Amino acid sequence: MPTYEILSVGEELLCGLTTDTNATEISRGLREIGFSPAFRQTCGDDRDALAACLRLALSRSDVILVTGGLGPTYDDVTRDAVAAVTERELVFHEETAARIRAFFDRRGRPMADNNLLQAYVPSGGEVLPNDYGTAPGIWLETGNRILVLLPGVPREMRALFQEQVLPRLTEKYSGAGCVRILHFFGITESELDGRIPPSLKNGSDPAVAPFAGTGEVELHLSSFRESEASAREAIREAERVLLADLGSYCYGADGDSLESVLVKRFSSHSLTLATAESCTGGLLSKRITDVPGASAVLRSGVVSYSEAIKTKILGVSPELLAVDGVYSEACAKAMARGVRDLTGSDFGVGITGIAGPEGGTEKDPVGTVYIAVADSAGETAARFVLGHGKGERRFIRHLASSHAIAMVLKAAGLFSGEKEEK
Length: 422
Prior knowledge:
alpha/beta, five-stranded mixed β-sheet, 17 strands
């Protein structure tokens, strides 16, 4: 298997001013064809520093994918550094120059002379035309190494990578890779790792690797075989073994998210939902409505931050609040029941708690959240203590909304997808 390396160029990345989404996009794309990057580097806009990074990459990796530094300004040094390290001349590429001129003509804008710097290519390099901007990609083979230069603008990089680079890499390297991502909720990364059979660890094929997210864990299953069919069969068998033990925690695969699974499975069963949120402030409804098709599932969302709204809109009795308090299982149940009755939905969910950083007590510290789900059979509820208090408001709110989605799916018997098909 070839060794891959990603080299991201840009002062804004090095200083943390911009998130490196390009490296993430490339990593995911490589995994889709059965490969994983062995190394990642980030370098600022300094020619000598970039040259040092390139030499290191060429000393250890078969394929180096470089993003950024191909623009027309003085700090775009990728072309110069690559030419120096590979001992190539920069050659003017007239076809690229014509494309750049046409780009500005179509937009009715004047072109500065320095834009034509983007038409210079290290000799022997093959231009990858960019239909979305002015900086072309470049495919350069040097010895037994491949350098792929891609623009730093994410939209342009993504298009070139998906449309031109991935197909070339797939064709160049024999064999076929397959990757499957399983999504788990309600189990820790360490517990999940401890339940992976030894036969799927320690360099096996298929390989299984856990990755922790915000309250979730992914298992990445990858196989590289002589054919795609063989790789897929190996992945299917590994998945069967894993889910025999861990299936109750697995809610989806590949591009699934908790909210997309909720929308898909509720839609397929013609089920509806309404939300009543306090500490999450509408985040649960937002996550659901971010998914196309959510209008068939979510009937309404009520953000009931104050006690008055809990009472007036959701029908939570003042007596209940006086006895049990706002932060209680009883209040969450009343909110869930109230929003379900209000909207005529199949399911109602209520969330109340303390997201912080202030407001916690010894009984209910910051991070305490009560969640309830109401349906025709009644209400179920749970208490969670999420995060470690101060400074984790965003984490607490996100994880609370995730627990709410998981509870709704479980109440409907749809969490693991066993009833997904009618």
